[in-house]
TrEMBL record:
Listed GO biological process terms: propionate metabolic process, methylmalonyl pathway
Protein name per its UniProtKB record: B12-binding domain-containing protein
GO cellular component: cytoplasm
Biological source species: Dibothriocephalus latus (Fish tapeworm)
InterPro entries (alphabetical): Cobalamin-bd_sf (IPR036724)
Gene Ontology MF terms: cobalamin binding; metal ion binding; methylmalonyl-CoA mutase activity
Highest taxon of the lineage: Eukaryota
Amino acid sequence: DILVFVGGVIPPQDYDFLYESGAALVFGPGTRIPDAAGKVLEAVQKKRAKGC
């Protein structure tokens, strides 16, 4: 299994579709890199803790 992260100019109404399609995180315009990096690290740590 892999984690999929999505970012860019994505309409907010598409976020639910992306999550339902398997995206772990969605980052829209203006997302600060340190904030995104922290969320990515947290998601990876949670996945590794599950033994994946």
